[in-house]
Amino acid sequence: MKILIIIINNIYVEVGATSNRWRAMVEGLAKNGAKVHLVFLGGFSSQKEFEQYGGEGEIDNNISYFYSNTLLTKSLNVRRLNKYLLPLYIHLKNVFNIKKYLLDKEFDYVFVMPKLDCFRIFDSIFLNSVFKNTKLILELNEFQDVMNDHSTNPLQTYRNNIELKYLTEIILPRVNVLITMTKTLETYYRKFTIKNSDIVYYHLPMSVDLSRFELVNDNVECIKPYIAYTGSSSFSKDGIDILIKGFEKIAISFPDLRLYIAAFWESDGSKMMQLIDKSEFKDRIIYLGSIDRDKIPALLKGAEMLVMPRPDSRQAQGGFPTKLGEYLATSNPVCVTCVGEIPNYLEHKKSAYLANPSDIDSFAETVIDALSNKKEAFEIGLNGRKVAEKYFDKDKQGIYLFDFLKKQMK
Questions:
Q1: C-beta of residue 11 within 8 angstroms of C-beta of residue 42
Q2: Is 153 in the same domain as 277?
Q3: Do both 272 and 381 map to the same domain?
Q4: Which range marks the domain in which residue 253 is found?
């Protein structure tokens, strides 16, 4: 099986839920024998990335990569220039280089990241070409229209709307395999594929590399005891405001406890820092920023508890938090809000602690309950790990997805 994947940035350089999910899919397929070719459209994010990866090469025997865009885009201003003022030039450059790269190559599937630039590449190269018989795979892990909730300027909103129209009117009617993270998403997107008789659907839950959280050295530079959070600084998506306000109630009962926040900066970042600065426990709330992927396991394993106060938003209803899989993989007790499809996998005080969404008191009381009953919390943490092994293990999911795609080729 040969698979071409068109994606924006190098998933072995980027840090975050998106790159983790793509790595899980890519490595799962490759481990089972698929030949995976990654095409990166977004250029190099740093000089270090350029020096390490060059224009093309191999990750291992079954995973190769190619940078169709070799521009260095390490600054935000350069990225904005490419995205908003030079999109046609970048697109034509990518099309030319990808066509050259694909000479004498054949693929069973082309896997397209759900981004506007990737959609346009597929439209330009694969729809009326020698590759027109290659099956198209699309993976969706959230409602695409929630992107505007995180827009920071009108141009971004404009692009998001074009992307959504491209998805629903051009891509979905042509998709052969639609992979969704939740059943909720599958149900929603079926209405855009009614006339697509060739489509098949596949439910791929959140994936986690369980081996990352085994035999972890407890060398994290955090003062114990602490509870930890990883994710974003968003209020609407991840409830970072609920976390900080809830910790103020928790901190009273546990005077030595600290909260470590490892979050990449989103539009609510400034408001998050203001909340921390105004807190009477600000010396015990430590913002780490966005930390390296390799440091995440030690941070999480060293915590007394892992927390995720996600609000009950449209994004939560459609998606599923990738970081929850990492939390569960540690065997530490987890406190998460009861939103979306999380209750389909986790049971309160059996495999996790489930708090009411957008409820500061419920969140704080749930964490206090766990920290006050460590023996019970320990058992619940072990059960959470079993849930991750059963449903979210990337190696098992890789086997299932590979076998599914193999059947579609017959």
A1: no
A2: no
A3: yes
A4: 210-391
